[in-house]
Amino acid sequence: MQHDRFLEGNTTQFVREFLAGATKGKALYRTPEIAEIESIKLKKIKFTTDDEAEATLFIKLKDGAKLRSQVLIIIKSDKEIYFVGAVG
């Protein structure tokens, strides 16, 4: 819904907001450009309630910088889940 409707198909903005995170070891908030990304790894998924979980992603950039991003997952049913990144 956010990609197609709210952002009118702007994939670059959607990915940047979805992967925004804090630079490892610092309080700096960073949103990488898609071309900067070397790899993304799912570090862990932690269930916070029966219908919510948090996914922790580690993002390595081509310049060697490392980012950590947390994404909220809302579980509606065994067939319907939503990933919640930055909105707007």
Class inferred from helices and paired strands: mainly beta
Mean pLDDT: 80
Number of strands: 6
Which range does the strand content fall in? over 45%
What is the count of DSSP helices, taking H or I runs of 4+ residues? 2
Spans where pLDDT lies below 50 across 5 or more residues: none
Helix content: 10-25%
**What is the rounded distance between the termini?**
12 Å
**Overall tally of domains:** 1
Largest sheet: 6 strands, antiparallel
N-to-C series of helices and strands: HHEEEEEE
Radius of gyration: 14 Å
Shape: flat
Describe the protein:
It is a single chain. This protein is mainly beta and 88 residues long. The protein has one domain (2-84). Helix content is 15%, strand content 51%. Strands 1, 2, 3, 4, 5 and 6 form a six-stranded antiparallel β-sheet that branches. The two termini are 12 Å apart. 7% of the residues are buried. The model has no long low-confidence stretch (mean pLDDT 80).
Q: What's the quick description here?
A:
This protein has 88 residues and is mainly beta. The chain is built from 2 helices and 6 strands; from the N terminus they run ααββββββ.
Tags for this model:
mainly beta, six-stranded antiparallel β-sheet, 88 residues, 6 strands
Any chance you could write out the topology, listing elements then pairs?
Elements: H1 2-6, H2 11-18, E1 21-23, E2 29-30, E3 37-49, E4 52-61, E5 66-77, E6 80-84
Antiparallel strand pairs: 1-2, 1-5, 3-4, 4-5, 5-6
